[in-house]
Amino acid sequence: MNIIDHLSLGVPTIANATEFYNDVLGTLDIHQLAVTETFAAYGQDAVQFLLMKPENGAPFTTGNGTHICFTAETPGAVDRFHQAALKSGGTCEGAPGPRPGYPKQDVYTAFVRDPFGNKLEAIHNGFAS
After folding, report:
1. Where in the chain are the domains?
2. What pLDDT does residue 66 have?
3. Neighbour count for residue 9 (Cβ, 10 Å)
4. Nearest-CA neighbor of 115 among 40, 49, 27, 18?
5. CA torsion, points 115, 12, 26, 128, in degrees to nearest 10?
């Protein structure tokens, strides 16, 4: 059993967010499975990641110290994730490469921020592997 059913990120607009996330997550074989004006759902076979406009009507904000990490099958997929993020309006928060300081050896990862300020990571050989 997975301990997490799904993760969600708040975004200011679904239309702008899906432009970025469709390009970036597609590099990891993660696809948009459903979309409305208030949410977009992503996964491979089932929904595991959601983009949502805040339901309480308050403005969207990012969480300091919070990030979401996506599994990459190869180091090349990490590179493509990073390149797609930068091409789609994201910013670099850590170039692709090994991370010797991680508690698990032989990881290869990259960090980016989406155009809205959310921090994302793609990792090969991460904790879930």
Report:
1. 7-55+67-124
2. 87
3. 21
4. 18
5. 90
Residue pair 82/61 in contact by the 8 Å Cβ criterion = no
Answer yes or no: is pLDDT of 18 > 90: yes
**What confidence score (pLDDT) does residue 56 get?**
84
Residue tagged 């991680």 (tokens): 102
pTM, two decimal places = 0.87
3-state secondary structure 3-72: CCCCEEEECCCHHHHHHHHHHHHHCCCCEEEEECCCEEEEECCCEEEEEECCCCCCCCCCCCCCEEEEEC
- Residues 38-82: pLDDT tens digits? 999 999 999 999 999 988 888 888 887 789 999 999 999 999 999
CATH class of 7-55+67-124: alpha beta
Residue 16, C-beta contacts closer than 8 angstroms, at least 6 positions apart = 115, 116
